[in-house]
Amino acid sequence: MPENARAAADQAAGTAKNSTTLRTLARTGHAVNGLLHVLIGGIAISIALSGASGGSGGGGDADQSGALKTLAGSPGGIVIIWVVAVGLFALGLWTAISAFLVRESDTRKRWSKRISTAGRAIAYFAVGSTALTFALGGSQDSSQSSQGLTATLLSSPGGVFVVIVVGLVVIGIGGFFVFKGVTQKFLEDVHPPAGTTKRAVVVLGVIGWIAKGVALITVGILFIVAAATQDPEKASGMDGAISALAALPFGVVILLVVGVGLIAYGLFCGARARWGSL
Asked: Under a CB-based contact definition with an 8 Å cutoff, are residues 260 and 45 in contact?
């Protein structure tokens, strides 16, 4: 890209990123992302308690679709879902612009940061699209979507390799979440006031990031299992990961811990909406 054109594009992107409206909506995106994780955590705990009490399990899909179904069935739920959709699309746009504006002297670091930031933007857009489907009166099952995509890949040449790569990438992302939680690097993204508030945010961050990482690592493992067994039903996303954790020895306890952790992550997202760097 010519230097003048690049400078003009950077200026336009910077102006858009610093727009008060976009930044406010992006903060809303962090808040509604937190709300979805709180609901997913609550569903996971419901599934764990149902299993512990000898029930038939259930309580809803422990993923974004399940959280959106819960919202849709509540008073004023459609209005909230519209806020979720708009907030996540805005957060996705803000994050995509941030990826474009990444500046690092080291080329490898620059592209690594751009790719990871762009990946987050895609994730926000994906969940925002699911929310928009619900807002327009439709419905979507994340597990079935994941299984359908996996089935398509497995039936195509080289598809097994692609599914394995997807699984490894998701495991890597989960590992990064765990790393960020253990090292408290999430404090680079949020700056709460010192004292009790900051200590609370740190606790929520450590627990939340590790729990989200564990869930993502489980999702990645299920993709690899699906590739190894040629069974796309194994790749059932977050809901499948919750079910897989519940099936482990002491699964009820593990699922309770992960559910609480996902709620903690959701509350951390709320703190990021308030004190995050935007």
From this structure: yes
Counting Cα atoms < 13 Å in the Cβ hemisphere of 272 gives: 26
Instruction: List, as one string, the DSSP characters of the chain.
Output: --HHHHHHHHHHHHHHHT-HHHHHHHHHHHHHHHHHHHHHHHHHHHHHHHHHTT----SS-SSHHHHHHHHHTSTTHHHHHHHHHHHHHHHHHHHHHHHHT---SSHHHHHHHHHHHHHHHHHHHHHHHHHHHHHTT----HHHHHHHHHHHHHTSTTHHHHHHHHHHHHHHHHHHHHHHHHHTGGGGTB-PPTTHHHHHHHHHHHHHHHHHHHHHHHHHHHHHHHHHHT-GGG--HHHHHHHHHHTSTTHHHHHHHHHHHHHHHHHHHHHHHHHB--
Are 212 and 261 a contacting pair, CB within 8 Å?
yes
Residue 271 confidence class, pLDDT cut points 50, 70, 90: very high
Question: Higher model confidence: residue 103 or residue 164?
Answer: 164
Tell me the pLDDT tens digit for each residue of 41-70.
999 999 888 865 554 444 567 788 889 988
What CA–CA distance (Å, rounded) separates 116 from 118? 5
Structure tokens at 210: 């590790």
State pLDDT tens for residues 112-153: 888 888 999 999 999 999 999 999 988 777 777 788 888 888
